[in-house]
Copper resistance protein D domain-containing protein
Amino acid sequence: MTWWSVVRFLHVLSAALWVGGQLTVSLVVLPLARRLLDGERREQVMRAVGRRFGMFTGAVFLPVQLGSGVAIAWHKGVTWASLAEPGYGRILAAKLALFCAVMVAAGLHGWATGAGRPGFARATALAALVGSVGVVLLATALPAT
């Protein structure tokens, strides 16, 4: 195992934890909270889950994703110009653009939740979740180099 295998492992593990966390909250925690908790208690629990997940995102996920992603790109010789090339470059460019859109949607979700805009919060949460799955899909489509 090389140093680069460890860097790639951390990149994949961090992404899996973040996307897996989104899926777990959306598909397991939220439906159970809706079924088992009254409105006020559900709101408290989901705000606490969201706050903790947001702190995890800012303190762990983003630094690991950005640091390992930049390191992997540097190691593979990715340049701004290579992002326009067919194959690896364009798929990586699409992955990066979608990742940025997901981060915007996640940030808007946090804002909407705090601002008491539940409809917008739901829409941005769904956008972030679907976009995150899309990022994983694009990552798996990257050709081996």
Q: What stands out?
A: Residues 3-141 form one domain. The first helix runs from residue 3 to 36. The two ends are 17 Å apart (CA to CA).
